[in-house]
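User: Please fill in residues for this 247-position structure.
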C-alpha cells in the first residue's frame, strides 16, 4: 500500500513535535511554513515555505502533491490560514484535523482585562501606561504611535517600523523563566502586560510572573476558527490520524 502523504500547516512548536511523531508512525509528512521567520526552528520531514495563494491555491497544491489529510497545527491566532485550510479541504473532500493547545485560563489572583483584538487592547491601556507588549510584529505599530505610551515590545522578527526612543525593543525567542519575566517587568517599571491568549507552556512564564506581581494583563482572546475535529496534544491526535488514513 502506498505511504499516505500528510500536510501539516505549521509555524508552532506543536507542529514540529507532530511532524516527528507522524514520521515515526510511517507517514510521509510535509510541513508548510509561512516563510515569515528568518531563522525558523525546522521540523523533521519535508518542508515547503510561503503562502499558497489563498484557498484555491492551496486546493491546487493539495491535488498536485497527492495529499490525503491536512492537519492545521498553526498558531491559534493564524485565522486566515485556518479558514483557507477548511475551504480547500471541503472543496476536495479531504479530511482536516486541528492540533490546538488550550488557551490560558484566568486564576482567582489574575487581573485580566479581556479584549477581542489588538486594537481593543490598545484602547484598554490607560494614559501614560508602560506596557510589555508580546503580540508579535504585525500589530505593534499603533502601540508605538500612541505618544503617551512607553514600554517594552518583545518579538522574534524585527518590527518593520521605527521604534520610538521611549520604547525598548527586545528580539528574543521563548522559552523564558518566571524569574526572567518578573525581572523584566520590574526593571522596566511595566504597568500592563499585553498578550494574545496563545496558551501552552512555552510562553506561559509571563502569565505566572504577572500573577505573582499582581500586574494587570490585557488578554487578547482567540479568533474563532472553522469547526473541524480538534485535539489538544500530539498524543491525542495521533490515533485520529491513523483512524483517518489506515484501513
Ligand atoms: P494568517 O494571518 O492566518 O495567514 C496569512 C497568510 O499567510 C495566509 O493566507 C497564507 O498565505 C500564509 N500562511 C500562514 N500560515 C502559513 C503556513 N503555515 N504555510 C503556508 N502559508 C501560510 O497567519 P499569521 O498569523 O500571519 O501566521 C503566519 C505563520 O506564523 C503561521 O504559520 C502561524 O502558525 C505562525 N505563527 C503565528 C503567530 C500569530 O500570533 N499569528 C504566532 C506564532 C506563530 P496564502 O493565502 O497565500 O496561502
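Assistant: Residues filled in for all 247 positions:
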Amino acid at each position: 500500500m502506498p505511504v499516505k502523504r500528510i500536510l501539516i500547516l505549521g509555524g508552532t512548536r506543536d507542529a514540529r513535535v507532530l511532524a516527528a511523531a507522524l514520521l515515526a508512525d510511517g507517514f510521509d509528512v510535509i510541513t508548510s511554513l509561512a516563510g515569515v521567520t528568518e531563522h525558523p526552528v525546522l521540523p523533521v520531514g519535508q518542508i515547503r515555505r510561503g503562502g499558497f495563494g489563498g484557498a484555491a491555491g492551496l486546493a491546487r497544491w493539495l491535488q498536485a502533491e497527492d495529499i490525503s489529510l491536512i492537519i492545521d497545527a498553526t498558531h491559534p491566532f493564524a485565522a486566515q490560514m485556518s479558514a483557507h485550510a477548511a475551504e480547500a479541504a471541503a472543496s476536495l473532500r479531504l479530511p482536516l484535523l486541528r492540533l490546538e493547545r488550550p488557551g490560558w485560563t484566568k486564576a482567582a489572583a489574575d487581573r485580566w482585562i479581556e479584549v477581542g483584538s489588538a486594537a481593543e487592547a490598545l484602547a484598554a491601556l490607560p494614559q501614560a501606561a508602560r506596557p510589555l507588549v508580546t503580540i508579535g510584529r504585525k500589530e505593534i505599530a499603533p502601540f508605538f504611535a500612541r505618544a503617551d505610551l512607553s514600554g517594552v515590545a518583545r518579538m522574534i522578527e524585527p518590527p518593520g517600523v521605527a521604534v520610538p526612543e521611549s520604547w525598548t525593543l527586545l528580539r528574543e525567542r521563548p522559552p523564558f523563566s518566571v524569574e526572567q519575566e518578573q525581572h523584566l517587568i520590574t526593571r522596566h517599571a511595566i504597568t500592563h502586560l499585553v498578550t494574545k491568549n496563545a496558551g501552552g507552556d512555552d510562553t506561559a512564564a509571563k502569565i505566572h510572573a504577572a500573577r505573582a506581581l499582581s500586574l494587570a494583563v490585557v488578554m487578547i482572546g482567540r479568533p474563532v476558527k472553522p469547526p473541524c475535529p480538534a485535539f489538544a496534544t500530539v498524543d491525542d491526535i495521533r490515533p485520529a490520524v491513523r483512524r483517518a488514513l489506515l484501513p
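For context: The mean pLDDT is 97.
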